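A student in our group prepared the protein record below, which I am reviewing. This is what I was given:
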Amino acid sequence: MMKIINNIQKICILILAVLLSACEYGDTNIDPANPQESDVPTNAVIPIMQIQSHRNITSILGRFAGILTQQWTGSDAQQVAYSSYVIGETDAENPWNTGLYVGSMRDCVDIINRATEEQNIQSRGLAKLYLAANLGMATNIWGDIPFSEAFLGGENLFPAYDSQEFIYEEIIRLLDEAEEDLSSGLGTLNGNLVPLSTSDWIKVSKSLKARYHLQLVHRDPEASQNALDALAEGAMKGNSDQAEFPFSNSVNAGNGLALFGIQRPNTMIINTQFATFMDNDPRKELYMVQDGGDFLFYSSANTNLFWAQLDSPGVLMTYAEQKFIEAEALERTGADGSSALREAITTNMQYLGITESIITGYVSAISLGGTLENDIEIIIGEKYKALYGNTPLEVWNDYRRTGYPVLTPNPLGVNGLNPSGIIPRRLLYPISERVTNPDSYNAAIEAQGGHLLDDEIWVFPTN
């Protein structure tokens, strides 16, 4: 059965709709007109955590990533600046605070604490899985981040930043613990709230683990083999194993990409280079629609745009991404990744509803067998197409990690925030950190050797 997080209590969606209706992220994670968090049962916090986690993937952080990797481009308003690599401290404020630290990650920690007290160990495992995924998102974007001291409340108002190396260790630890908790048999997954078996979530955890292991390929000589080992331990077996969030077909609780298309029409459009890259690809008409000389990612008149409908699913990680990871890891360990690559493309197209004959025709033209570098370029190029619209941050991660697909930086991208003019390697910490947590903020900048968009982060070195 398709592993969809459905049947969520309507009151939970309504609570979140209030928080998110004014903008992507509300001004706070608690509505003062509603009961305090301590009065809200754990099974009501879980769907709020989930929808914020999936919203993080498809909203402004995803748009930053998609613009930087030239799937989208700005045609008006702030998106024009973002396309020229003018992304400053204030631009990172809402996704850092309301999206992550006061949003999904704080809720994950809250659920972990509550579930521990209630001995609801399986729900604790689910929260640990989501916390790992949100941590991965945060550290991929900023490098060193607060974690070990971040959620102590009044005990520590000035949390230190942990190194990115430590954060990756914590991500793997959390996923290991999530699997242990989920297999404990203690507690429940809150009945209809999350209709996935514990074994299903364990598959998702192992798939995520493979993602984060492979991201360490420049720092750990065993990274590729570790990714393969995680997959071999029982990862997802098909599209039906994906953990999906069914966004509501409403402007209050819909998919973040569609909401942006509605709320900021045509301020961001498809990059013409990406449109050209998708020529002769059967997925093109499911990703974009031509309007004069432009290609649009959203159109109110086109319901075929798979990832730009209000009820388009939010995917934590696709099975296609898992197969691309397998293909790359096999190639890096000296094996043949051709079969995994073909399955990655096939399963992505099947998920989008493309007919089998068309899939067969496309996949038959795909082959590996050249140099390792050439094969990696092919794999990442196909992954670039398949991850469009669902997990755009992973596209940016792959570009910084491999250099593929080959992209030409925007010639207007030389500025004080990005003096070298390269495609940015990171985002700046938000202004609130500089103002309210200056000692920890400055220590993190010193430890990483700078705080500009073209300063690399530990996991994705440029050399």
